[in-house]
Amino acid sequence: MQVMVKWGILGPGKIAHAFAEDLVRTQGAVLAAVASRDYQKALDFGARYHLTRCYGSYDALAFDSEVDVVYIATPHAFHKAHTLMCLQAGKAVLCEKPMGLGREEAEDMIQMAATKKVFLMEAMWTRFIPATKELLSLIARKEIGEITRISADFGFKTNYLPESRLFNKSLGGGSLLDIGIYPIYLSHLLLGKPLHCEAKARMAPTGVDNHLECTLYYPNSCRTECISSFEEDTPLEAVIEGTRGNITLHRRFHHAQKLSIWKADGETRELTREYIGNGYSFEIEEVNRCLENGWTESPAHPLQTTLDVMETIDRIKAQIGLDYT
Ligand SMILES: NC(=O)c1ccc[n+]([C@@H]2O[C@H](COP(=O)([O-])OP(=O)(O)OC[C@H]3O[C@@H](n4cnc5c(N)ncnc54)[C@H](OP(=O)(O)O)[C@@H]3O)[C@@H](O)[C@H]2O)c1
Question: Residue 1 — pLDDT band, cuts 50, 70, 90?
Answer without folding.
Answer: low
